[in-house]
Design brief:
Number of helices: 7
Shape: globular
Distance between the termini: 16 Å
Strand order of the largest sheet: 2-3-1-4-5
Order of helices and strands: EHEHHEHEHHEH
Structural class: alpha/beta
Length: 184
């Protein structure tokens, strides 16, 4: 389920800065919120930091451009750094589809950012998206998400989780990959 991680183990008093990433419908909000609860740190829904124009564009079935995404990514990175400065740590649900987007997030955070990619097939994620109610991201944009996705490279020290597993298993594996106190 997990790919080998090169994460530096955290000191017991450090609070992690985590981005749960992946295409729309991969389970970012579910896994990120449960992981935050397990670790006892705040959860931030990255989508809540989108400018209204981005939400309107996506709801209309129009994929975002890089120019649309930069202010959003900067806002997420800044929020993560606020949580770092206050000593809380944070788990953020954010697509972070491109290496450059992850670099943008890292540039705003003055600490180690851990990335967890929720990885799954187009078919599985498409089925999940069709069942979602009330989300602004339509299933029609899933192909553009997969086209944009650049899976993390070894220099990013990300963990890749297979979303065909149950959420509880994914949360447990994610927690073990981040902190020494939850590792076996």
């Amino acid at each position: 389920m997990l790919q080998p991680s090169r994460f530096r183990m955290m000191q017991a008093d450090e609070k992690p800065l985590i981005v749960v990433m992946g295409v729309a419908g991969s389970g970012k909000t579910t896994i990120a919120s449960q992981l935050a609860e397990k670790l006892g740190i705040p959860f931030v829904e990255g989508d809540s930091l989108h400018p209204a124009a981005n939400v309107k564009k996506m709801a209309a079935g129009i994929p975002l451009t890089d120019e649309d995404r930069w202010p959003w990514l900067e806002a997420i990175g800044e929020r993560m750094d606020v949580e770092r400065v206050t000593g809380h740590g944070v788990v953020v649900a954010c697509s972070a589809l491109k290496h450059a987007y992850r670099d943008c997030l890292r540039s705003k955070v003055h600490g180690k950012v851990h990335f967890l990619l929720l990885d799954g097939s187009r078919r599985l994620i498409g089925e999940r998206m069709k069942k979602r109610k009330g989300h602004f991201m339509p299933p029609a944009l899933l192909d553009s998400q997969f086209a944009t996705l650049e899976k993390p490279t070894s220099d990013e020290h990300a963990v890749i989780l297979d979303i065909s597993h149950r959420p509880a298993e994914l949360v447990e594996e994610a927690a073990k990959s981040i902190t020494p106190e939850t590792a076996s």
